[in-house]
Amino acid sequence: MYQQLLTKEKTLAVIGLGYVGLPIALAFAKKVRVIGFDINAERVDMMKNRIDPSKELEPTAFDGCDIQFTHSIEDLKSASFYIVAVPTPVDKHKVPDLTPVLSASRTVGQVLSKGDIVVYESTVYPGCTEDDCIPVLEEVSGLRWMDDFKVGYSPERINPGDKKHTLENIVKVVSGSDDESLDVIATMYEQVVDAGVHRASTIKVAEAAKIIENTQRDLNIALMNELSKIFDLMDINTYDVLEAANTKWNFLNFFPGLVGGHCIGVDPYYLTYKAMSKGYKPEVILAGRRINDSMGAYVAKKLVQALIKNRKDVSESKVLIMGATFKEDVSDIRNTKVIDVIQELIDYSVAVDVVDAYADPSEMEHEYGLSLSSETKPPYDAIIVAVNHDQYAEMTLDNYRSLMSDEPILFDIKGMLKDRDMTGIHYWSL
Question: Is residue 81 a contact partner of residue 117, using CB atoms and an 8 Å limit?
Fold first, then answer.
């Protein structure tokens, strides 16, 4: 199959064209013929016009690509090698929601033919590909796994907003149903990943490798968040402590913050869910999750305390929140923890304005029922710099002061402004 894909006798299809799927589709489209499939017709139309709906890629990224964008399942029938790159969220109870990946499996199942290969990139718990996805492929297609088609798993490692660690220069973990399919999958990814591939021994190993990457990061950030709470009680600046500690060669340089997004704040729940289904209740992982999930309420409580100390009437106070996306300089609002800060302040009867030049107002309204402000309306009793967008770093303290009332309160969650002269400002950071 590998040679037939390179000669364009066969076609590769990518299912799901978001932050992960579109870069993959375009990278392969420079080497082979690609069908880019997404259920959102509006997004498909944008991509047909060389526009990345996620605002990550420039129009030039579409140059030299042999790709057909479509939302029609019928167009997928000509493909033989499928890559599934759809989200894997959790529900409100922190239980894995496999709806997108199972729906994508049903889509592929409708067009699957004998000899085809399906590769999953969506982050899942170990065993999900074989126990949950393959049965759907078999049921819908009427074909038999191993006898009629093969499956692989290659976890995505793309980091939204990161222009350095891209698909091309991050080692790709790959796995397959057997040696034959693994060889085809590995060889295909080697065409677009300059850093090379790592051949995992099994599909489950590849699934587990991905999920512990984000679990490890989540736990390290949770430790920093807990330390920031302790140091706050001691009137010690956490970032000053970390700067000093980081002079040791083997210190792991993590920082406190709001842990949201589609990976770090979600993936550990996939692992703990699977562990509990096996009769084991994780303690350390869930403890880390509880700490990180509590940080939005903690920040809001600290702000209310600051308002009271500054003799402000909480119910009459007006707060500006700068930034609503889950991280700096991206438009991605999935699982943003800024919303926790906002909701907690609203529960305290605080009037809140939220601004963010990156976030899509219609998406914020649809996802969270929150209206973004198109402009600031000073004076504000307090400002929370919730996301370290570059434009906020470039603002002077006079810019911030111009937005605030007397006895200004400035909350800088990730310490972006900590080295500025804060004379006359009630300043706080994690």
Answer: yes
